[in-house]
Each structure stands twice: as C-alpha cells, then as structure tokens.
Amino acid sequence: MINCIGLDISKKLIAVHIPINKANIEIENNVKGLKGLYSKLNKLYKKDIDNLVFIFEPTGNYSFALTKFCNEKNIKCFLINPKQFSNFSKALGQRNKTDLIDAQVLSQAIPLAKDDEIKVPYIDTIVEELKELISYYKFTTKSSSKLINQLEAVTVKDGSKYMINDLKKSLKISKNKEIEILNKIKDIINSDNKLLKGYNNIKSVYGIGEVGAIVLLYLFIKYPKANQRQIVSLSGLDPIEKTSGTSVHKKSKISKAGSRVYRGSLFMGVMTAIRYDENFKNFFERLKSNGKHTTLAQIAVMRKMIIIAYSLYKNDTQYDKEFYKKACGSV
Q: What is the pTM of this model?
C-alpha cells in the first residue's frame, strides 16, 4: 500500500499533510526540519515507512534540500508538474489556496503519476556543482556589466577620479573572478567523461566557443527531457507574434524568456559561423534574399546553431558539414 505525503514547499517552510492521522503541519525547509519530519513519520507508519511516497512540486533551489534528503533516505517521490497540479486542484473543486491546503491536495495526486515517475530522486553531485558555478558565473558577468556601465557614465562626463579608479579596480577583480569560475567549471567538465564528450560535441559547431559550449551544456543538462522546440523556447529564441482582429498587427519578435546568457554567449559566434561555415552562411543569405532583416536572420542562425548543438549532444557526435547541409538548406 502506497502512503502519500503531500508537501508544499516555500522558501523557509514546508507545509506537510500526513493522511494517516490527517495532520497538517509546517516544518523548516532545512535538514533539521526534514529529519524531524522523518522521525515523526517513522513512528506513525512503522513497518510501512518504506512504502512512503513524497509528492511535491519541484521548485529549483527551494526544493533541493528535500530532494537531496529523499535521495539519502531512499524515499520515493512523485515530482508533479506545477501546471498538472493546478489543473488537478481545479478538478477537485478546490478554490481556496493556502500552503496547507495545497499539501493536502498534493497528497491525493498520486493517480496522476506514471509508474516511472514514482522513484527515488537521483542527484548527480558533479552536475549540481556545475549548475551552481554557472549560476555564479552569470551573477558575476552581470556585476561586471553594471560596473562597465557605471564606469562609462562617470568617465564620459570626466567625473570623480577616485570613483573612476575604484570602478576600474572593482571591474578588474570581477573579470578575474569570471576567469577563475570558468577555469573551475572546465576542471569539473574535464573530470567527467560524459560531460567532456558533451562539451566537445557542442563546441565542434562553428561559432560556438568556450563560454557558449559551457552555457549550452548547462542548458541541455538542466532540461534533459526537452525537445528541440522546448530548448529553443528555454533559450528565449522562440518567435512570438501579437495580432488581434484587424487593428493589432505587431512585428514578430523573440520571447527572450530564460537567461540572456544563452543568447549573449552566442551572439558573436553567429558572426563567425556566418563568415566561415558554408552551411550557416548559405542559410543566412537565403533568409536575407527572402526579405528578412539582418538581425532576424542572425537570430534564426543562432536558433539553428542551438538546435544542431542539442542534436550533437543528444546523439554523442561531432559537427559534420556534409551531414547538416540539408538541415541548413544548403542542398
């Protein structure tokens, strides 16, 4: 018999519904709180403790402590999709929404799970460290950009010499930190054969350099079950169109969803690809001859590069000009 525990996760607390005694409790979202919960469940379920299934929505960093705890304690979980849970809650006619009510509804959501979705969560510590470092790299590059903008603003008006010198020092430290983080990331990639293969396969595409290959590797690892269309969307390169009736007809533009680091790391690479790779060059020129604006054509090339890189990563192979001629419309 499966015993389902519903858990609604927030930054500091986890709301828990325990069906066996219909208890609704809140615990701290940390190891101490989770240990206390497991001890309580052990007393309640005794021999049936191995039949527990934790049901919760994956919420990135906030759910990581719970996911890791379940991995260590060998607790089976059903990580329910937020949209799926929302629809399920509506289907039950549940209009009220609190953390404890959500936990109660989650405890009833097991019928939505497929057999392969009820399992002990797997955590790859190397991949997790890679994700953290890339997030840190994104944070550092943002800091560098802010410092550059501030330095330009002060310099252009010949402002405070002290401020200019101090900003230059801070910028140098930030840039050195970027290099240090990248070197640490490369050490991790080099230490794992699977990651190294994926990195080299992605980097084999013309125009995708060191940083581009790293951030795309991160994207592909983060969303291992995504299809090509979803990968494009996650990189923020999916086109969106706004039309309504006969009065609203706005130009199509990219969504810019997801982190700009994916697009920013490939922008200059697009120029290289268009210049030196026959496939991307022909693809770009064909779009231009069909009336596409230069920027839109460049974005389309970037989209094509990501799709090809994802294919290389998934199929564990390197870029082959001849093979991808058809995909780029060169034949």
A: 0.69
